[in-house]
């Protein structure tokens, strides 16, 4: 168990150093630190990092790894338009008073 907590502490320390390097705009140093974090976390070089996850290719067909937009829970379908106002500008024609 001691290894896990030491590894977690080392990853956290490297993460703080990486954030400081990004703030200082030292992006090469930040990339080197990210590679060290990935090595400690057990991510193989050249594979997707832990921060990026995608679905398994071909699981359900093409494009299934794309996010699906969802409506808000409070969304309601808008009312259907009045068929009498379809071709009339400005709304329904007023009826003559008489």
Explain the overall architecture:
- 38% of the residues lie in helices and 0% in strands.
- With 98 residues, it is mainly alpha-helical.
- It is elongated, with a radius of gyration of 29 Å.
- It starts with a helix and ends in a 57-residue tail after the last helix.
Number of strands: 0
Shape: elongated
C-alpha end-to-end distance = 92 Å
Number of helices: 2
Structural class: mainly alpha
- Strand and helix order: HH
How much helix, percentage-wise, in residues?
A: 25-40%
Mean pLDDT: 75
Give the amount of beta strand, in percent.
under 5%
Radius of gyration from the alpha-carbon trace, in angstroms: 29 Å
Main β-sheet description = none
Extract low-pLDDT stretches. none
In short:
The protein contains 2 helices and no strands. It is mostly helical and 98 residues long. The chain is elongated, with a radius of gyration of 29 Å.
Helices, strands, pairings?
Elements: H1 2-23, H2 27-41
Helix pairs in contact: 1-2
Could you name the key traits of this structure?
about 100 residues
